[in-house]
Amino acid sequence: AQSVTQLDSQVPVFEEAPVELRCNYSSSVSVYLFWYVQYPNQGLQLLLKYLSGSTLVKGINGFEAEFNKSQTSFHLRKPSVHISDTAEYFCAVSERTSNTGKLIFGQGTTLQVKP
Amino acid sequence: DSGVTQTPKHLITATGQRVTLRCSPRSGDLSVYWYQQSLDQGLQFLIHYYNGEERAKGNILERFSAQQFPDLHSELNLSSLELGDSALYFCASKFRDREVDEQYFGPGTRLTVT
User: Fold this and answer.
1) Which of A6, A65, B14, B31 is the most exposed, fewest CB within 10 Å of its CB?
2) How confident is the model at residue B56 (pLDDT cuts 50, 70, 90)?
């Protein structure tokens, strides 16, 4: 079984400051890793995913994430945030050989960008 | 717009009732997933259908059932509703069942049980 822990439920940050949203996972099998964003009153949208290869993954809207196998982490970063980045962010894993692709999500982190 | 549609957007009903949530996947997508988002449990996987067949089940209650029809749309049926079933229910679709493929999420159906 897999589990995902997002270490911060809320992250307040000022506009143009850098931000890091932390995610740790636990799994007895190999997994793929994802970050999704949920804007108010909308569905989830994929920001980026790690499948294999380079451990630094770049996504949409200037976000990037780094996979660290030894620490079982997949932290999301952005060097300079905008007001429009205010949203809920979810880290998720999918078992590599499950033949289903179901996603197991963390509890979410609310990013609040202040002017 | 992800291309996934869900109806209705909002649903208010009483305890003990039964409701049906509908999902139309993106054109050509064979896989449909249902997720429940609640304050208590967060975002949880309920069930996955691929080309009409059930592929995986998650934390789905026995009072809940789902199916995927030949035209690939899916319905989630919730019966004997309880207050704790109040949640946002998302449907997601993707082309196949491969883990590497992206899931596209619909806008959700907000269910309120009173």
Assistant:
1) B14
2) very high
The nearest alpha carbon in chain B to A41 belongs to: B107
Which candidate from B42, B101, B108 shows the least CB-CB separation from A101? B101
Site from B1, B7, B43 to mutate, A interface, most A CB atoms within 10 angstroms: B43
User: Touching check for A49 and chain B: CB below 8 Å?
Assistant: yes
The answer to whether the CB atoms of A44 and B92 lie below 8 A apart is yes
Q: Is the pLDDT of residue A67 over 70?
A: yes
| pLDDT tens, position by position, A77-97 | 999 999 999 999 999 999 887
The confidence score (pLDDT) of residue A44 equals: 94
CA-to-CA dists, residue A56 to A33, A88, B18, B23, angstroms:
12, 22, 47, 35
